[in-house]
Amino acid sequence: MVEQTFQGAVQDELSQVDRHIGEFFAVSGGLVGQVSRHVLATNGKRLRPTLLLLVARRQGRVSETAVLAASVVELIHIATLIHDDSIDRSMLRRGLPTINSIYSDQVSIIMGDFVYSKAFALLVDHGLFAEMRILAQAAHVMSHGEMLQLERKNRLHSTEAEYLEIIDEKTASLFAAACEIGAMARGVDEDGVAAWRRFGREYGRAFQITDDLFDFIGEEAVMGKARGSDIRSGRVTLPLIAALGNASARERARIEEIVMGGGMVDGLWEELVAFIDAKGGVDYCLEQAAHHAREAASIAGDLEVDADSRFALAAVVEQVVRRRR
Amino acid sequence: MVEQTFQGAVQDELSQVDRHIGEFFAVSGGLVGQVSRHVLATNGKRLRPTLLLLVARRQGRVSETAVLAASVVELIHIATLIHDDSIDRSMLRRGLPTINSIYSDQVSIIMGDFVYSKAFALLVDHGLFAEMRILAQAAHVMSHGEMLQLERKNRLHSTEAEYLEIIDEKTASLFAAACEIGAMARGVDEDGVAAWRRFGREYGRAFQITDDLFDFIGEEAVMGKARGSDIRSGRVTLPLIAALGNASARERARIEEIVMGGGMVDGLWEELVAFIDAKGGVDYCLEQAAHHAREAASIAGDLEVDADSRFALAAVVEQVVRRRR
Known about the structure:
The structure is a homodimer. By secondary structure, chain A is mainly α. Chain A has one domain: Farnesyl Diphosphate Synthase. Chain A is built from 17 helices and 2 strands. In chain A, strands 1-2 form a two-stranded antiparallel sheet. In chain A, strand 1 and strand 2 (96-97) form a beta hairpin. The longest helix of chain A is centred in the middle third of the chain and has 28 residues, at 190-217. The first copy, chain A, is globular and about 60 Å long. The interface between A and B is large, with 41 and 41 residues.
């Protein structure tokens, strides 16, 4: 597995994170128990905890507090995904059916709230108040970003700045929070914490731009879900925004017809993807993702960190723009 | 207005709560702003903050901390209602269309998360960590209760104990939390805090039993929503459970047919309500609500509290079983 190159350095701590999460989801019988087992089966890549733990390491050691905070960050991420899948009416997540598709949107709403409130309760129970401040704020910003995204649904004249605002809020904010918490756990000074926060934001931007690009050109088997979910949900993302910027009025009108028509059948999807590629949308996204990854790498390069964390962080940043190809 | 009899004692503090909530919802433009204005227009009775403030008063004064905590309790209640209305597919709330009916379930999910995360962020910002512990736990228990309720949908053989478990979790827990926080703000000892918590739970039970009864026999104009929402959502509540306990096998079969058939047209709704009344379901609920109200009154009677708070608390408890008649 490719991921082992960067997760190896914190493998033991990630196992503890998995154990924490497993314990939390093992609590209940009944419907909560059933849904919990499904959530556990849809195991993620644990990217946010990995970053947090890599930043937090000092002389090869990670505090228990950092491991717990990493688990809570992942729980918040899981709660967000459960609500997002219901909002987007997604059918698949990492190759498995989503909770909303197996059960209902009702179960998704409640389960998201259940996980979310537990994440905050865990932080309070362990007295992690600084982490709490950061994560409550991040959760608030994420929901604001989701609302912006919904508000700008099907808005084909969206600008790149508007797109960046959305991904900063809905995605980069939690990566930034994870890295900030990692830096605090490492015990670096205020400037260092702020720099690691910027690192997380840049990483999160590279991550989301790549994600949005692969929604057009990724391999479905690797992604564990179907391409085209953004267009189906009316999300106008950077590949399309960039391509439309290079299109004639006539081409714009044609693309508008395709996108607003909704149905991506009969060769229309291929036409859309070919348009985005021909008009430089793919190249622009690769460039922009690489740009933000370089920014992240450059920030990390200036900061103190364990040697093997440095190696692993470089790998994780490198990989964000290379995954799924 | 009847409510003034018990809200009068903390009228100034409730205005501050309204101001806090107004400020929070006034923050944003765009879709968040629109939805926020709608939430503010659907102004509630502020029962939870009222109880918190009445308990918190000492020699006529309420601390700023208590006022802030009361505002946050109401925000958590508002977030819960937004998600609940979407889960129940409710169309009306306090005489106004619900967010899910005006916008969509998607907007409801995000808006609930937005309010909820802000509530927790406010607590952290003001260093209210003890309150945070209580409220994160209450929120977690509430979502568990919602899941139980969903799991037991349409289960006509539900027992009274199962019903009590659900209402304790989904409703009484937040009333208990509000009263516990009020007692902490008043500075009473541990036993006193635990007793006020029990007071809140008993009050919450009386409140929910009455609410569930009035879903069958209340006046729609007073409730601000249509009767029958529980049956439509498959919620088997105490009036029905109690009536079924006194029914013959044949009567049970007939009621099962009506309830599971879903459609409450052509006199079936009237038949159901007449059955519940004839089989003692109405009387039993009135008795049980009165029993829990008496328990609450008896607990409060033993505790130290300001003289006009005592009067107001007696009024609020008295009223929970008398409202909407």
